[in-house]
Description:
This protein has one domain (4-213): Aldolase class I (TIM Barrel), CATH 3.20.20.70. Helices cover 32% and strands 19% of the residues. The protein has 8 helices and 8 strands. The chain has helices spanning 17-26, 49-58, 76-81, 97-106, 152-166, 183-188, 198-201, 206-213, and strands spanning 4-7, 32-37, 63-68, 86-90, 110-115, 133-137, 171-175, 193-196. The chain has an 8-stranded parallel β-sheet.
Amino acid sequence: MPHIVAPSLLAADFANLQRDVEMVNQSKAPWFHIDVMDGVFVPNISFGFPLIKAIAKHAKKPLDVHLMIVQPERYITEFKNVGAHILTVHYEASTHLHRTFQNIKEAGMKTGVALNPHTPVSVLEDILPDTDLVCMMSVNPGFGGQKFIENTYKKMAQLRQMIKDKGCHTLIEIDGGVDMKNYKKLLLYGADVLVAGNTVFSSENPLKTIETLMK
Length: 215
Ligand code: DX5
Ligand code: ZN
């Protein structure tokens, strides 16, 4: 399967959001990545339902919504209603992950679980068959524009092996610090989805940058 690039709108110009959403519509990127932060699970606050609803109105591609919030299970229906297609919750924020996945699926969305840099891949042993996507955080969540953590490659190799052993079709998503220097190596290590915020939106020619990342 060809890989996916998911531009993270956290790095977009919020005063020109429609323009940036249209840019992604016209680009080769198959998904949008949307980062929701609550100021509790992570030290930053990003945006909530009204903004996602506004994005969904213009977006012509699936919204991959990454929840960096405590008790994400409280808001599954709301995220569906504002237009989420994939709903990713953090392993570290979920006491009943299996039930949360059931509820996400019942609401008609794909499931994702995100792992912080310190969380070992082994915790996914019993939940992997129930998820469509694993979002491997390659920075500490909360901010865009941070430096890629090199230990991610080791974790990717472990996850790739686990997916193979179990015969799953789970997508591996890499989130944080993806740039023009490391994206090829990430693909070699088996990344299916590359999230890219600053690399896309701070570049001189975002359309061209996305095209390169899709190669
Ligand atoms: C970080 C977010 C990322 C972020 C990536 O907490 O989950 O999606 O937007 O930004 P870059 O690509 O700039 O590291
Ligand atoms: Zn994210």
